[in-house]
Fold:
Amino acid sequence: MANMDVSLKEMMAIDGAIGGAVVDYGSGMALGTIGGGKELDLQIAAAANTEVVKAKLRAMEALQLQDAIEDILITLGGQYHIIRPLAGRGGKGLFLYLALDRGRANLAMARHQLRTIEDKLDV
Structure:
């Protein structure tokens, strides 16, 4: 099992990573961040993407979908943003957030690596 700091470092090792965070979607607070900088304010991204997760959960409830979100992908002109709610016993109410440079990232590989990071994360 990996702690949050190790998991964040692994997120930044993904090809094309700009920044990453572990976020509590109840409060919108980032519990841990790495990267970002002038390109991306991770505190704002954490709070804003909390609303994305909540909106999708509301939509699933309204549609009476008995399923779970695996990940949410936001594709921008120059970036990919992946939101991955944690499914493990200790991760309820948390999500991983990863921003990638679209020109340097392999989206399929990044999703696979993020799933592996989630599986090892112990919160």
Q: What stands out?
A: Strands lie at 17-24, 29-35, 72-75, 79-85, 94-101.
